[in-house]
Amino acid sequence: MPLNANAVRVAVTGAAYAAAPKSKLPTDATTSWDAAFTDIGWISDDGITESNSSDTSEIKGWQGGQTVRKVISSSEMTFQFTAIETSKTVLELYHKGSKITTASGKSVLAIKAPGPDRRCFGFDVIDGTSHIRIVIPDGEVTETGDITYKGDEAVAYELTVTAYPGADGTVAIKYSDDPAWTGAPPV
Q1: Distance between terminal CA atoms of the chain?
Q2: Could you read off the pLDDT tens digit of each residue along the chain, which spans 187 residues?
Q3: Do 159 and 82 form a contact (C-beta atoms < 8 A)?
Q4: Using CA atoms, how far apart are residues 150 and 74, in angstroms rounded to an integer?
Q5: Of 26, 28, 40, 86, whose CA is between 20 and 30 Å from 137?
Q6: What global pTM score does this model have?
């Protein structure tokens, strides 16, 4: 296969979204997100990091103790990003199970001990006219970083979303309109 510099992609820009569980999911790379999805806002210039990990168990043969098979004993898909725009959605994602209430023009976030808070998530990754859309039908913020309040930095909310498997085992869906995905030569 010849090398093709036009098929090298850079995540120039994009967006992260969250919605209530069982919201209507997109079915392609470019159609507008359903109104149930909220754009999380500005993401730090570190972008979004996708991680896929798995643990294996080795099965050793009695004769010689050599590995004769490896079995996947666990696997996990996560997405990590840092939101730098403070909003109701971001605060409620960061403080799982807590809700902002507003009364008499004043907002209050009563922070509770974290509880389950499963949602749908999505990410758009854009390089010019090439789009990758990642949809997580069932996910949850499972890790958060420290918040630093400092005069020369944005208040940032580091979030790690874990994608959970559906009934058919699917943890995430990726769509793209990039011709490189089909094997067609990109222009």
Answers
A1: 16
A2: 678 888 888 899 999 999 999 999 999 999 999 999 999 999 999 999 999 887 878 888 988 889 888 888 788 999 999 999 999 999 999 999 898 999 888 999 989 898 899 999 999 999 999 999 999 999 999 999 999 999 999 999 999 999 999 999 999 999 999 888 887 665 5
A3: yes
A4: 39
A5: 86
A6: 0.88
